[in-house]
Design brief:
Elements: E1 2-4, E2 17-23, E3 26-36, E4 53-55, E5 61-66, E6 71-76, E7 81-87, E8 100-105, E9 110-115, E10 119-124, E11 129-134, H1 135-142, E12 149-159, E13 162-170, E14 179-186, E15 191-196, E16 209-211, E17 216-218, E18 224-229, E19 232-237, E20 243-247, E21 250-254, E22 272-273, H2 276-287, E23 290-292, E24 296-298, E25 303-312, E26 321-329, E27 335-340, E28 351-354, E29 357-364, E30 367-376
Parallel strand pairs: 16-22
Antiparallel strand pairs: 1-3, 2-3, 3-30, 4-5, 5-6, 6-7, 8-9, 9-10, 10-11, 12-13, 13-14, 14-15, 16-17, 18-19, 19-20, 20-21, 23-25, 24-25, 25-26, 26-27, 28-29, 29-30
Length: about 375
């Protein structure tokens, strides 16, 4: 493993090493370094910034889904080296489908995968399909015409009986808009629990209809995260700090009371835009307001970390910049500290916590590196 401090070669930071940060009278030291993974000559799949991935229970291994092959790249995070590639089938009885964007482990020997061509399934770690289902079956359960309902942000809760929690998209409206809700699909039982998103999150003003000339499409200015956390499922979004926890059929709304940053975006978008250019211009303004990443859990220090950031206008789109904050919360999601991090100068890539440090993925010359941050009082 190669372990060095960051210099200008890694554009993510504007400085490196250790820094003292003041948070409401208290001082904290942020220790920053970067580690590089030995790819062993493998052409690793980095297009998704490692975001379609999962970890072993002890976080020793990262399983990164390569949708090109398809395959699963196993990365050893202790040794910082490529371990193995598990080859999978795209078509046939054991096929995972075309372009897998839903993936999570179910124990040490089973995983869930879902693709853009509406194929979903439970697979053994060697690639054999245990059971599968399609969005066509979803339409039959809901009584929708074929192709008029889809699912996104799919997370498998269990394999036996098979159940998934996800975001549902209803495309039956004639004006091209979609209705969205969240729910639990008990696949083996053929039943669905439906819950209105607006019960907890206000996304009004973030899903306009955009005219592309020869067609119209509804685009989202928000994104939705669904993550498993021990026995809970945690819902979060970029437009508000509010969280939603799900466990055993019950939801718990978690209101975050911030001290120095905004709790949510203030701006809204109009319902319709006459061009994509007009939409992107207004979207840029919206992103200059507060944005939130998903919380990540530090089991060693028993705290949650969550980045918040405001994107800054920049004519050079290849070098976006942002004002970044690190929010530290206890296990009850009470804010302990809000730390402005001047070392970070853009919105953080995919990140997680291991060994008491935040690990942020960075692609350096098509190689895997992680920028690590440790917060010390």
């Amino acid at each position: 493993m190669k372990n060095v401090h960051l210099f200008l070669a890694v554009a993510f930071f504007c400085s490196c090493g250790n820094s003292n940060i003041e948070d409401q009278g208290d001082y904290y030291e942020l220790s920053l370094d970067t580690v590089y993974l030995d790819s062993k000559g493998e052409n690793l799949f980095l297009f998704n910034n490692l975001s379609v991935s999962d970890f072993s229970d002890d976080q020793t291994l990262m399983y990164n889904f390569d949708l090109r092959t398809p395959s699963i790249e196993v990365l050893d995070l202790d040794k910082m080296e490529f371990k193995e590639r598990i080859l999978l089938e795209k078509e046939g009885p054991d096929g995972v489908g075309e372009m897998v964007y839903h993936f999570n482990l179910l124990g040490s020997d089973t995983f869930f995968a879902g693709s853009t061509d509406q194929k979903f399934g439970i697979f053994s770690i060697d690639g054999s399909k245990v059971k599968g289902f399609t969005e066509e079956e979803l339409g039959e359960v809901l009584g929708f015409p074929q192709g008029m309902v889809s699912i996104s942000q799919v997370l498998a809760l269990s394999s036996d009986p098979l159940s998934v929690i996800c975001e549902f998209n209803d495309w039956t409206a004639k004006d091209g808009t979609k209705r969205q809700w969240i729910g639990v699909w008990h696949v083996d039982e053929g039943s669905i629990e439906e819950y209105k998103i607006e019960n907890w999150f206000d996304f009004d003003g973030y899903s306009p209809l955009v005219d592309f000339g020869n067609y119209k499409a509804q685009l989202n200015a928000y994104w939705f995260f669904i993550e498993s956390l021990d026995e809970k499922v945690l819902f979060s979004t970029n437009v508000t700090s509010t969280l939603l926890a799900y466990k055993n059929g019950a939801f718990d709304l978690i209101i975050i009371n911030h001290k120095t940053i905004e709790n949510k975006k203030r701006g809204k978008l109009t319902d319709r835009f006459e061009s994509r250019e007009e939409f992107e211009l207004e979207l840029k303004k919206l992103r200059s307001e507060i944005n939130f990443s998903k919380p990540v859990w530090d089991a060693e220090n028993e705290v949650f970390y969550r980045f918040a950031y405001k994107e800054k206008g920049n004519e050079d789109q290849s070098a976006p910049s942002a004002e970044v904050y690190l929010v530290v919360m206890n296990k009850e999601f009470e804010v302990l500290h809000e730390i402005k991090v001047p070392q970070l100068n853009k919105s953080p890539n995919f990140h997680f916590v291991k060994d008491g440090r935040i690990w942020i993925f960075e692609n350096v010359d098509d190689e895997v590196s992680f920028i690590r941050i440790k917060v010390s009082a």
